[in-house]
Design brief:
With 548 residues, the chain is of the alpha+beta class. Helix 14 packs antiparallel against helix 18. Residues 1-123 and 534-548 have low confidence and may be disordered.
Length: 548
């Protein structure tokens, strides 16, 4: 009552962007902010002018700088949302206003019972009591968890119990109607959800209603379910698991590869429809995989926004979910490739994203990538301690240094190990070694000699070892040149031995580079000095300068 009275007395004020915003009975009993016509500056009383205010804070600042309002005459106009979150009002198609700034401007305290929410930056107040009451009424009306469907597989049935219900149509219609009475819940009929693999999908209130009701029944916690959902909507962000299915390795427990990546049996990944397909529990009509996917690399990441109000179904590029998704996928590819230092070369089979909490599953379960083929000779056991040690050292390197120095060598080493043709193997090994040992030089003369010499001095510990490494690398480089120019090399025991030995040396060189943090002084090394990670210096972007 207090706020309704204040709204009626205040009538209208001006926000930090100079827009007229009204409070009052027309704005609803829940104190909604509505957009009204913007009066000319000369018509606004001086006492009601509000100075501009900074909008975004913290890590959102770079993103906020890209978000400009496009429906007003001022070129740099920005909308303001609760908790200082900026949003692209022109992209979302609706002006959000600044309820918190408005309250601060007129000097009124915010009652603790008010819980501000943001759906793509729209100031909202979600009535959790109304939502909980509607859920209880639906449960009393006979709502139950969706029954399992064995024909679709155990994983699909598990997802159904998290996201769907069994309910009489009339009871469900009443349930949705009661949720629609909350204007913030009704907005879901206009919202789209960001899809990690690209684009967006329509949300709609009935889908949200089913997930809410299913989780409330499964957890036997109506208030907790509503509170969690409300907090997720407030942040408009969700935690997700990026899962990369791989073949070619065997393990019986989880292995930590770096600070945020795990390698585990596929059966240990939380259930999802994609996991069911990877394990061979295919749905009817889905081809699935010729052989089950045995293992998985996973990492957890967060993206925002989850929900948005579009002018078109595609989210703006700067807030599209596929950007953090691709970053997570790249991280998993790095972890897969670094196992090559140990002589283990897993084959990429599939990639998908699934929610950590199925309460925020909108859009996340849409799409996945499949690579059913792939060449791998055997399933290799992963040495736990060695794998964790090499991955920890690798991921301690700055991301740019890893990308500049080790991405191509590791990728080409993996290709060479998985390919069957000797010519392809020789070419890939040659590329890996050139990228690793010659990336600092523009002089294209005597590449084979320089590559062999550097490799021998970097890796060899005495004259005998250096001479053997020098000979092996020179033989590989000749083989690589022949393959590149003629497209063919002789299939013989000698060729096989040359490639096998060069592969071992390449792995050892990459491991040495990781140990040295990609910092070497080639002049000192080729003159007989010991390698040391004290050589070289980082520039401001994390790159490394090496002496030629």
């Amino acid at each position: 009552m207090f706020w309704k009275t204040i709204g009626g007395l205040v009538g209208a004020v001006v926000d930090g962007d100079g827009r007229s915003v009204a409070l009052g009975p027309a704005a609803s009993p829940l104190l909604r902010v509505r957009r009204f016509a913007r009066p000319a500056a000369a018509d606004r009383p001086a006492s009601r002018r509000v100075p501009p205010r900074a909008v975004a804070r913290g890590s959102l600042q770079p993103l906020a700088n890209k978000w400009r309002c496009t429906d007003g005459p001022a070129p740099a106009r920005r909308a303001i949302a609760p908790e200082g979150l900026a949003r692209p009002s022109g992209e979302c198609g609706e002006y959000g206003g600044s309820l918190r700034y408005l309250i601060h401007t007129i000097g009124l305290p915010l009652p603790k019972s008010f819980r501000l929410r943001s759906v793509c930056g729209i100031a909202t107040v979600m009535d959790e009591t109304l939502i909980a009451r509607a859920i209880r009424k639906a449960i009393e009306g006979g709502a139950v968890l969706a029954p399992p469907m064995p024909a679709l597989g155990d994983d699909t049935s598990a997802v159904r119990t998290q996201t769907d219900i069994g309910i009489e149509p009339a009871v469900f219609e009443t349930f949705v109607s009661e949720l629609r009475a909350d204007r913030d819940m009704e907005k879901f009929n206009r919202l789209f959800a960001n899809v990690p693999h690209g684009g967006g999908v329509s949300v709609n209130l009935p889908n949200i209603a089913r997930v809410l009701l299913a989780r409330a029944i499964a957890t036997d916690d109506v208030e907790g379910t509503v509170a969690r959902f409300s907090s997720y909507v407030e942040r408009n962000a969700t935690s997700s698991l990026a899962v990369m299915g791989i073949s070619g390795v065997t393990l019986d427990r989880e292995i930590r590869l770096g600070p945020h990546i795990s390698l585990m049996p596929m059966s240990s990944v939380p259930p999802s429809m994609q996991r069911g397909w990877a394990l061979g529990n295919s749905r009817p009509g889905f081809a699935g995989f010729e052989t089950p996917v045995s293992s998985a690399l996973i990492t957890q990441f967060e993206y925002t926004p989850v929900f948005y109000l579009p002018k078109n179904p595609q989210p703006p590029e700067e807030m599209a979910a596929h950007i953090p998704t691709h970053a997570a996928q790249h991280l998993l590819h790095e972890a897969r490739n670094v196992l090559g230092v140990l002589g283990i070369h897993p084959v990429y089979r599939t990639f998908w994203v699934q929610p950590v909490d199925w309460l925020m599953s909108s859009g996340i379960t849409s799409g996945s990538q499949f690579a059913p083929g792939g060449f791998y000779e055997r399933e290799t056991a992963v040495p736990v301690e060695q794998a964790e040690a090499i991955a920890a050292a690798y991921f301690e390197l700055p991301a740019r240094r890893r990308n500049d120095w080790l991405r191509i060598p590791l990728d080409r080493l993996g290709r060479a190990a998985r390919e069957g043709d000797f010519a392809d193997r020789a070419i890939d090994l040659g590329i890996a070694l050139e990228s690793l040992l010659l990336r600092d030089t523009d002089d294209r003369g005597e590449l084979g000699f320089r590559l062999s010499l550097r490799g021998a001095w970097l890796l060899g510990e005495n004259e005998t070892q250096r001479l053997e490494i020098l000979a092996s690398l020179k033989a590989l480089y000749k083989l690589r040149s022949k393959a590149a120019h003629s497209g063919h090399v002789e299939r013989s025991a000698k060729t096989s031995d040359t490639i096998a030995r060069a592969t071992e040396i390449c792995r050892a060189l990459i491991a040495k580079m990781i140990e040295l943090q990609c910092k070497v002084d080639w002049e000192q090394i080729v003159l007989g000095g010991a390698p040391s990670n004290s050589f070289g210096s980082d520039d401001e972007n994390g790159d490394v300068f090496l002496k030629a």
